[in-house]
Amino acid sequence: MSRTTSTLLRPILKQRIPLANSSLTIRYASSSSSSSSSSSPLEAPIEPSTSGPSRTSTSIQNLPLSWPNYLNLRKQRKLWSTATTVPTTFLGLFLGGGYFASLETDPSQLIMGIEAMYVYGGATMGCMALGYLAGPTVGSSLFSLTHPSISKGKNSPLEVMDREFFNRIKRNRADPRFQSAQNIIPDFYGEKITSLSTYRRWLRDQAVYKRKAMHGVPAEDA
C-alpha cells in the first residue's frame, strides 16, 4: 500500500520542482531589472555645457527684451512722437497767435526798429516751432505712461535696450572722418531701423560707405 502511494505521488513532486525553479527565476529577473533601472543614466546629474551656443544664449537672456520686441516698441514710440507733434505744433500756433493778437499795437512805436506787427508775427511762428520741438518729448512721455512696466525705473528694460542698441550703432557705423558732401553717412544714428531686416540693410549700407570712403585713400605709413 505504501509503495503504491509513493509511486502515485512521485509524478506530482516532479511537477512542483520546476514550478519552484521558475518562480525563483522570475523573482531574480525582477530584482535584476529593478537594480538596473535604479542605475539608469537618465537619473545621472547633467553637467552644464560650456560650449559657444550656451554662452550666446546666456548673453541673450541677460537682456530684458528680445531684439524684435524692442524694435517693435521703438517703432511704436516713434509713432507716438510723430503723432503728438501735429497737435503740439498747432497748439503752439494758437496759443502764441492768441496771446500776441490780444496785445495792443501802436504803428508809430517800433520794436528794435521793426514794426510790432512783424515782431508779433515772428514770435507767433516761434511759438509754433516750440510746439513742434516739444512734440517728440510729449509723445515719449505718453508712451512711457502707457507702458509703465518697461519704461519706469532707473534701469528700466527700455532704457537698457536703448543703451545696448546705441552701443551697437556706434560700434558698427562708419567713421565720420571720411564723410564729405558727396558721400554722407547713411542714417548715422540708426533712426530708420525698425526691424531686424532694416538693421541688416543698415549694416550693408555702412559697409558700402566704408568701401567708398576708403577707395583711393593711401595707406598710412607705419
UniProtKB/TrEMBL annotation:
<keyword id="KW-0999">Mitochondrion inner membrane</keyword>
<keyword id="KW-0812">Transmembrane</keyword>
<feature type="transmembrane region" description="Helical">
    <location>
        <begin position="120"/>
        <end position="145"/>
    </location>
</feature>
<comment type="function">
    <text>Component of the PAM complex, a complex required for the translocation of transit peptide-containing proteins from the inner membrane into the mitochondrial matrix in an ATP-dependent manner.</text>
</comment>
<feature type="transmembrane region" description="Helical">
    <location>
        <begin position="79"/>
        <end position="100"/>
    </location>
</feature>
<dbReference type="GO" id="GO:0001405">
    <property type="term" value="C:PAM complex, Tim23 associated import motor"/>
</dbReference>
<comment type="similarity">
    <text>Belongs to the PAM17 family.</text>
</comment>
<keyword id="KW-0653">Protein transport</keyword>
<keyword id="KW-0809">Transit peptide</keyword>
<dbReference type="InterPro" id="IPR013875">
    <property type="entry name" value="Pam17"/>
</dbReference>
<keyword id="KW-0496">Mitochondrion</keyword>
<feature type="compositionally biased region" description="Low complexity">
    <location>
        <begin position="48"/>
        <end position="59"/>
    </location>
</feature>
<protein>
    <recommendedName>
        <fullName>Presequence translocated-associated motor subunit PAM17</fullName>
    </recommendedName>
</protein>
<dbReference type="GO" id="GO:0030150">
    <property type="term" value="P:protein import into mitochondrial matrix"/>
</dbReference>
<feature type="region of interest" description="Disordered">
    <location>
        <begin position="31"/>
        <end position="60"/>
    </location>
</feature>
<keyword id="KW-0472">Membrane</keyword>
<feature type="compositionally biased region" description="Low complexity">
    <location>
        <begin position="31"/>
        <end position="40"/>
    </location>
</feature>
<keyword id="KW-1133">Transmembrane helix</keyword>
<dbReference type="Pfam" id="PF08566">
    <property type="entry name" value="Pam17"/>
</dbReference>
<keyword id="KW-0813">Transport</keyword>
<keyword id="KW-0811">Translocation</keyword>
<comment type="subunit">
    <text>Component of the PAM complex.</text>
</comment>
